């Protein structure tokens, strides 16, 4: 019988105070993979203390790296000849492990990485990663649940158009191209701040890259890279989560450690909903007096509205005055958590990748279950707008992306505790 960790919140809190947000999970994981590109010790600062970072550390250790984590800094000491295998037992727990594919292929000429499969937010293909590496001269096969890529004579520059600005494909191809022979042009790439962060680290390692932050990256391959010290960009999704929590609870929260420019549309939606948003470099403050007004949201690749903030947008809509139309354009399973939101009394109709949300003045506390990282955080915050107590189970999902989630809630005035669900009886014939 598995024990289930849960978070219990008492609704009715008005969030007030300040939170300091650390480095972005979705950057730090890729920066750790980038350390594979150079022998020696790279140091990555401002890394969040979350489960996903622990799993990535283990992926790198099994590749022969020495990895340590202290005071928010990860040190990765990469051997001259790293290993070339990432096993399913880790990759299934952290699909971002797939981002070792590009750097290992570029450095070792061979790699065997488990195919992560889909997950709770969608099917999550790898076709663009594979097609791009093939363009650069790799031979790729899928066997027994593994992606096996080889380039015994090295990778070469190529012109690659992505069908869609995939974050992961952009990162894998970029990390392969920096050591490829010749020039690689990557077009229709992702423009997320985490991609710029990766480019900054690679450039400091000696890579030649231009166009970071645009949809066209030009990479001139070099013979070798050197280890570096780098500081991770602030986590805009964690920052955005607190921004929406402030608006939903009609509170006032100052968020430090995140560039407000990385959340432009998300903060602008809050202004449309009636919030006051004050910004300064590296910080912002959200104040909401009164009930939010309904706003429509449509997720898109950066700089569009982030899909990772969709549960917060749905939560806001659930307590707003009027009807909001929310459209998800990135993941085919992102609405999985809607049934749990409905258990809290949210009035939501789904039609394909659209949701119509009729706002209610108050939700109603209930036991619910987190289905993924962002849905988990969204359900806890929705619980703050509910009458009575809300218990969110399976909060190990939240631990994958939010360091100090409960401590931050407490700091903002919420009555919250973490506990273990009573064991469920096992039934047997
Ligand atoms: N896709 C394909 N083929 C590919 C690559 C992607 O069809 O070869 C599809 C995916 O199935 C998906 C869409 O393209 O429908 C976007 O996928 P993308 O590759 O951009 O996402 P990702 O790299 O797998 C990262 C973040 C996600 C975040 C998305 C979008 C990491 C570790 N994960 O995923 O973060 O939602 O970009 O911004 O960086 C999270 O942190 O909770 C999270 C899910």
Please sum up the structure shown.
This protein is α/β, with parallel strands linked by helices and 429 residues long. It has helices at residues 25-34, 51-62, 88-91, 101-108, 127-135, 167-177, 193-204, 236-248, 264-272, 310-318, 338-343, 373-384, 396-399, 405-411; strands at residues 5-10, 16-20, 40-45, 66-70, 73-78, 85-86, 110-114, 139-143, 146-150, 159-161, 183-187, 208-210, 216-220, 229-231, 252-256, 276-280, 283-287, 297-298, 323-327, 347-351, 354-358, 363-364, 367-369, 386-387, 389-393, 416-420.
Low-confidence stretches are none
Q: List the bound ligands.
A: uridine-diphosphate-2(N-acetylglucosaminyl) butyric acid
Our count of helices gives 14
CATH class of the largest domain: Alpha Beta
Oligomer state of the chains in this structure: single chain
| Spatial sequence of strands, sheet with the most strands | 23-25-1-26
As a whole number of angstroms, the C-alpha radius of gyration is: 22 Å
How many strands, which pairing sense, and closed or not: the largest β-sheet?
4 strands, mixed
Count of discrete structural domains: 2
Q: Give the rounded overall mean pLDDT.
A: 96
- The CATH topology of the largest domain: UDP-n-acetylglucosamine1-carboxyvinyl-transferase, Chain
**Measured distance between first and last alpha carbons:** 16 Å
Under the CATH scheme, which architecture of the largest domain would be assigned?
A: Alpha-beta prism
CATH homologous superfamily title of the largest domain:
Enolpyruvate transferase domain
DSSP, total strands:
26
């Amino acid at each position: 019988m598995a024990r289930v960790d849960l978070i219990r919140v008492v609704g009715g809190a008005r969030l007030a105070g300040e939170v300091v947000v650390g480095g972005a999970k979705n950057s730090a994981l890729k920066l750790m993979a980038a350390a594979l590109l150079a022998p020696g010790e790279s140091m990555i600062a401002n890394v969040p203390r979350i489960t996903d970072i622990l799993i990535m550390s283990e992926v790198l250790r099994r590749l022969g790296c020495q990895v340590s984590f202290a005071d928010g800094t990860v040190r990765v000491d990469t051997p001259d000849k790293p290993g070339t295998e990432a096993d399913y037992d880790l990759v299934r727990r952290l699909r971002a492990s797939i981002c070792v594919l590009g750097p290992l292929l570029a450095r070792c000429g061979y790699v065997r990485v488990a195919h992560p499969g889909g997950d709770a937010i969608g099917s999550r293909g790898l076709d663009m990663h594979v097609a791009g590496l093939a363009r650069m001269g790799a031979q790729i096969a899928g066997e027994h649940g593994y992606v096996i890529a080889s380039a015994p004579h090295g990778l070469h520059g190529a012109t690659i158009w992505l069908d869609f600005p995939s974050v992961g494909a952009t990162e894998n191809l970029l990390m392969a191209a920096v050591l490829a022979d010749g020039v690689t042009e990557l077009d229709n790439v992702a423009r997320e701040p985490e991609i710029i962060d990766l480019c900054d680290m690679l450039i400091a390692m000696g890579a030649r890259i231009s166009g970071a932050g645009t949809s066209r990256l030009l990479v001139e391959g070099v013979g070798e890279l050197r280890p570096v010290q780098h500081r991770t960009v602030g986590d805009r999704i964690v920052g955005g989560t607190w921004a929406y929590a402030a608006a939903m609870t009609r509170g006032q929260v100052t968020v430090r450690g995140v560039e407000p420019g990385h959340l432009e549309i998300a903060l602008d939606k809050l202004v449309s909903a009636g919030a006051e948003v004050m910004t300064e470099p590296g910080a912002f403050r959200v104040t909401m007096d009164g009930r939010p007004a309904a706003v429509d949201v449509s997720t898109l690749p950066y700089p569009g509205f982030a899909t990772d903030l969709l549960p917060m947008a749905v939560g806001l809509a659930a307590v707003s005055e009027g009807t909001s139309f929310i459209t998800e354009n990135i993941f085919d399973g992102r609405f999985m958590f809607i049934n749990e939101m409905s258990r809290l009394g949210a009035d939501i109709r789904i039609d394909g990748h659209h949701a119509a949300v009729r706002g209610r003045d108050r939700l109603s506390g209930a036991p619910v279950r987190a289905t993924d990282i962002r849905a988990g955080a969204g359900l806890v915050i929705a619980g703050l707008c509910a009458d009575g107590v809300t218990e969110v189970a399976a909060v190990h999902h939240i631990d994958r992306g939010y360091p100090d989630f409960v401590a931050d809630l407490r700091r903002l005035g919420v009555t919250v505790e973490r506990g273990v669900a009573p064991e469920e009886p096992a039934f047997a014939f």
